[in-house]
Amino acid sequence: MVKEIERAGLPVVHMCTVVPISLTVGANRIVPTVAIPHPLGNPALSIEEEKELRRKLIDKALKALTTEVEEQTVFEQ
Amino acid sequence: MKLELGNIFIRDIRFDSVSKVEKGILFVNADELRDHLLEDENIKSVSLEIARPGESIRILPVKDVIEPRVKVQGSGGIFPGILSKVSTVGSGRTHVLKGAAVVTTGKIVGFQEGIIDMSGPGADYTPFSKLNNLVVVCEPVDGLKQYAHEKAVRLAGLKAAAYLGKLAKDVEPDEVKVYETPSLKEGIEKYPDLPRVAYVQMLQTQGLLHDTYVYGLDMKHSLPTMLYPTELMDGAVVSGNCVSACDKNTTYHHLNNPVVHDLFAKHGTELNFVGVIITNENVYLADKERSSDWSAKLAEFFGVDGVIISQEGFGNPDTDLIMNCKKIEAKGIKTVIITDEYAGRDGASQSLADADASADAVVTAGNANMLVSLPPMEKVIGHPEVANVIAGGFEGSLQQDGTIVVELQAITGATNELGFNKLSAR
Amino acid sequence: MILVTNNPKVQGDPGISCDKEYIEGSLKDVLIAVRDRIHKGHKLLSHPLSGSLKPNETPYKSILISKEAGSMDWDSLQIIENSIKVCEKFVRYPKKCGYNNQERLLADFSEVDYQLIVAALKSAADKVGGEIL
Amino acid sequence: MGKYRVVHYINQFFAQIGGEEKADYRPEAREGFVGPGMAFNAAFGDKAEIVGTVICGDSYFNENLEAATKEVLDLIKSFEPDIVIAGPAFNAGRYGMACGTVASTVEKELGIPAITGMYVENPGVDSFKKDIYIISTKSSAAGMRDAVKTMAALAMKLAAGEEIGASAEEGYIPNGIRVNFFEEKRGSERAVDMLLAKMAGKPYTTEFPMPDFDRVEPRPAVKDITKATIALVTSGGIVPKGNPDHIESSSASKYGKYDIEGVFDLTESTYETAHGGYDPVAANQDADRVLPVDILREYEKAGKIGKLHRYFYSTTGNGTAVASAKAYAAAIGKELVADGVDAVILTST
After folding, report:
1. C-beta atoms of C72 and A20 within 8 A
2. Which residue of D210, D320, D324, D349 is the best one to mutate when testing the C interface, meaning the one whose CB has the most C CBs within 10 A?
3. Is B138 a catalytic residue?
4. How does pLDDT run across D176-205, given as a tens digit for each residue?
5. If exposure means fewest CB atoms within 10 Å of the residue's CB, which of A18, B242, C20, D72 is most exposed?
């Protein structure tokens, strides 16, 4: 899916818990997330903490979208 | 290591007062053999039947098929570690009753499986329809546990085959074939320019009804190791596997391993066949990791350029297969894997439970989910009611006129993953 | 180690003393329960497609996973997801019926699953000093 | 029994009307065979006959896809065929697309079997191999003779309603449906042959291709994110509460497109997940945990991004199945480009 949207002409950042899957499906910009049932959240945190966590992940995603890449790249920190 | 195989072609099998092999006919004294098998106190009764190619006979549920062989020269005896003492086999001379087989049947568990039709459309899918079969129907003593029952039937088959094999000891073979594997060093010196090839054979080793024995050792407790190819021809590997009839390797398959034979056919001319690496298929995942590490390590150590990897069974062995393939490819060794498929009755589903880009050379033995309709036979040896619960059978598969509609997986040896058959799929 | 099972024989065997999660449900329910555990970071220790019995034959399944939950294990995930797919592929087809002895059949399926998981437990025991058996 | 009635579809070039300069030629029907139809008739023997030929220019067909398809279909229908043959198109891309469209539409709408032939790299192959039998041909018309022979044979089987064998037997391009057949050599011998070829670096064909692991070139980065329109797509199955489109819980065959104009936060009472591939509790409590609408709205307001696209797209599928969602993913991609989206955040569970 990532691949097909990118093929259509748009840069895609794949926010995905399991990086190897993301690599397998051919994503070029990858941001690892928290856990499968809640990739961009964590029920164990308070609502505000969770939002902060989500902001950090979105920041990473935006950074990935504004970074030129030549091959599959995982944006860790 | 060098073995001469003396093939004695058997064209018929008959009951008679004296067991002997004469002019291509195998005569069997049924009482004598029955008494021999009844020495096992776990077996209550034995009946013997004959099924010849082309006859209107259906055998089910089949447990194992074994070719009668006897050691004529060289160390050890047939089925070492089980019927003979544990000493290395694979050299000297062995006689084979080619064209004959012992087929064991017995309802070890309620879902026992395996069909051999001696004629009709089903016969095309099993290699055993082309053999003169002595069918051994065993009934256990009451209350015998499944594992003891399996063992009793397994041993009865091996004993019957050894009994018949002995009849060949002093018979002049119709042909003699020689198979020789040099040591690593000799091989390199002898064939410096030929690509070096090993065969990685995966053996089913998951537990009850899913086991394989090597020199009598339950292979799940072993690390991968190596065999000279000719050891297989003397019964070093014996099947204790009763599940997944279409893609389990019977003892007959092990004795006549087609990969071994086809590699030998080009040994010394197009390739240098170095030997066999046997490995297992355990349920515990760490075992899978370790065993595949080990098979890759052995392949690397033997310095081979390529390997053929064969599989046994359904489902989780796909994981072993892909692990073996991936790790051996990662060593820079080329692989070809042999498997079969479960692509659904319509052929549209994903065939394997695992996949990897490195598995880029695959031989398939066909889609085991394909439906086949097997018309009634005049005679059924075994338990016809088993058709309804047989693997690949389904509710109502036994129709009123005796026709059974089953998936190919119910037929013994139909999608054999050693590549024994011509069946394939695209 | 946690043993997830829907097999009464496995559940009821006091000889298997590791933690158990008993699933009152189908073979697929066991796979789903294991999948959810893997998503939480447990590791798969035995293969979910143990045995050559097809998922539309045997109703029983026992699977070993780690007790500890760490970061998610990719290999475990891949194996469980693929196993669920295989299961779904088979359960489209009708279940086999017992020809005349449903109880015997179920007992045999239960026994095979039991023996396969015992084989896996033995492998595990060799590694952890045998404390789980 | 009479002969099967065959209708043949060809382009302006094979009808000897002209080359590229005549590619805008409008659909036309002629009685009997034209051009390569003669070879087909010879191959049919007394079993079948081309009763009519429908011709259309490649440009006209591809530029007026809907109208041209209908016109061509009507012409084909007027001959009352038992079977339709399109092409072969060899490696001609637009001709391939036309042949694929014609053959698949004939099957779908007229219920008449139809086949075509193409070179394996023709773009028409990927688009249509799952819908119709496409005979594998050489890349140019030099392969006409072989192509006609194989296509005619398969066409006769289809017309007679006979069982179709495996791709390797019948000569069609593998369509993902696995069909059993008997090879000439046993599996072990094929394995030895394949290994010898592989070790020698010679070509060989695997009998079971692994799933597609191809790659796409990364697109250039977004220059100014504060001006960019960003769209959200998820394979985590987030849908409005009640799942109005009935998105299936796994390997969904469709996707949902949902308007989030004026939505600033996904709440337990408004959104949920339709995904069956994970424990849904956390996502149902707060779908922002899968589809971060709340934070993106915040960023939109703060000017950190230009705009959050008005619609989000949602489907289900565990990680690995994301790869199989090819067809509708391409459709989503097209739509997003057309709507002026600059970049996509795709979240997966």
Report:
1. no
2. D320
3. no
4. 889 999 999 999 999 999 999 999 999 999
5. C20
